[in-house]
Amino acid sequence: MRKPFSLIALLVFISTVCASAQPSAEPYGPQALTILDARKFHWSPDGNAYLNFQGGELVQTDVKTGAKTTLVTKQQLTPAGASEPLRVQAFDYLPTLKKLLIYTNGKRVWRYATRGDYYLLDMAGNSLKKLGQSLPESSLMFAKVSPDGSQVAYVSKHNLYVEDLKSGAIKPLTTDGTDRLINGTFDWVYEEELDCRDGFRWSPDSKRIAFWTVDARKIRNFLMMNNTDSTYSFNVPVEYPKAGEKPSPTFVKTVEVATGKITPIQIPGEPDNNLLPRMEWIPGSSELLIQQLNRRQQESTLYVADGTTGAAKVINKETDDAWVDVRSNWSESEVTNWHWLAGNKEFLYLSEKGGWRQLYKVTKEGKETLLSKEPYDIINVYAVDEKNGYVYFAASPTNATQQYLYRLKLNGKGNAERLTPAKYAGTNDYEISPNGLWASHSFSSANIQPTGGFISLPTHKPADGKTEPELKAGRMKVEFFQVKTSEGTVMDGWMVKPANFDSTKKYPVVFYVYGEPASATVVDRFGSGYNRLFQGNMADQGYIYISLDNRGTPAPKGRAWRKAIYRNNGIVNTKDQGLATQEIVKWPFIDKNRVAIWGWSGGGMSTLNALMQYPDLYQTGIAIAAISDLHLYDNIYEERYMGIPSEAQADYAKGSPISHVKNLKGNLLYIHGTGDDNVHYQNAEVLINHLIKAGKLFSLMIYPNRSHSISEGEGTSQHLSKTYTDFLLKNCPPGAK
Fold first, then answer.
1. Is there a contact between 246 and 231 (Cβ–Cβ < 8 Å)?
2. Quick one: pLDDT band at residue 36, thresholds 50, 70, 90?
3. Which of 321, 342, 359, 653 has the most CB atoms within 10 Å of its CB?
4. Predicted confidence band of residue 531 (pLDDT cuts 50, 70, 90)
5. Helix (H) or strand (E) holding 210
6. What is the pLDDT of residue 35?
7. Which residues partner with 669 through β-bridges?
């Protein structure tokens, strides 16, 4: 079932157009975090009720009857001397300890609001205390109460601290932390590409804390320039390892809280040629399970380590001739890549080694057993109900654009059972209660508005015994289709046709593309990009709007589909998009002389490559925050999918848009923010130089100091949308002919 409330979902700061080299989508978070997002509901420990903030108070609601109980009032959340209660952004409810940990005043660190202030409410004594009072305001990160309730640990200014809750004494457990020697949290690239933010864990007996140290002292700064916020310009440095640079040496250590004695975990290998993306204490023990990736990310090694001596032994190895994917697919807590069973003697583990993303049982000694034997991908693991012998997960064996709830017996007997009723054809998501009796169900499809509610399991009936929610159609009509390229690749796509569509006439077509491994665009879910950026309605204006998912996108179509992009980024995805478009423009209602394509970040790169590699096919392109040269993106992402540059120079060159600028014929609008710490504005200037050298004319829109989302500043989003719309209307005129 769900992990205890000490493992929590962090309040994130994500714009709708941010992500790893892409404008998306799914906020990955596979690490132990510290607090439950106060905007959402969370299950009570017994699983029969849920908690959320209602009117500024923490309320518990019985899932079956709807009866409400106020657990914490506004008065209890009001600090002494204050007239207003705290603005709770996230919380950790600890009923057995009669405590509530509160996060407020969050400040952004890179992409997420991971530092702020923490308060602890003692519900028994009705006292509210601010933690870390001797430390700077809004500097605390990832506060966690110890399992025995006596202490709380947190990070401030790259050092790990522990605070005694009885005496209030604050003790540093590390003192060498700087912005380059990072204890208890991570640098930019670990957060961005390995989903690592919270970098420490309490031991089950509350005597030790395991933590990461990242030594980023050899990683160079990338200097962004701020020209607008003062009379003289100034540099904005970002510690950023480009492709080809070695990763930061990273270590796992434990510290004995009582004495401050630090013990390094003895993980073999060169620290600057390996990555350490995952680490957790084995429940009920003094041992850790640690995952190591080699720099190429083609070999994953699991170690069991003694937290007191630091000795580590290998229990499992996995290799892949592309990459081993360590992004978490565990929804139950978004913490880790495994789940312990059988009194912590074995764990569940997802792997693609058999050609599909499947569940394995792995013993503490490393013996492996395949649990899910059917030939399809597990999209997400929702929960493990060991008491009743089931694991719940998301899958869609026959339609890669959709998602449904399944359950499988933990003994591996029989096939998985689909629990989502047929009427919910589309994308279904679930939050399953700790006792496995209830779930929060959310549903939508491209043509059905979002709906949902609480259900009982396994019947999938409304928890309150009343009628099921009404399904309401959206205004837009989205059609899904498949297209087969001349090379035999079958691709999923969606299409929105013009209002008052006439099949005897020809219409302009606009393709929305991403095309990289971080995100899929063809998903049967409401509002999935069906009119992005355009001011007004594209269908009303007379456009056909289409998106296609090429090989390499993370669709549940098996390992071979996803990993076809290895050392082929910018190559296989561009070819798939181009060859599929060649088939689509043969349709009688498509005007092959009015074909546009656009994308953001990785999709911006796909747009540039499409315009330049298929110049006679696409007449217009809008590329936003695009990578122009694969060497200019970060090492963990690019080396995962393209290999180490010194070993794959020809592939890097072939996939980079700057290698193809001489072929450009169409109308190009390029857009970038100068404050982009993800895909640097450097990409724009490198591209511009190549376009100038090749004598190519193009349009350019630069947004000063805007980040990858191009959302900061009054009027920015509206201006971006108008710029996009005006260019499209001018260069790919709408309407039937």
1. no
2. low
3. 359
4. confident
5. strand 208-215
6. 55
7. 622, 699
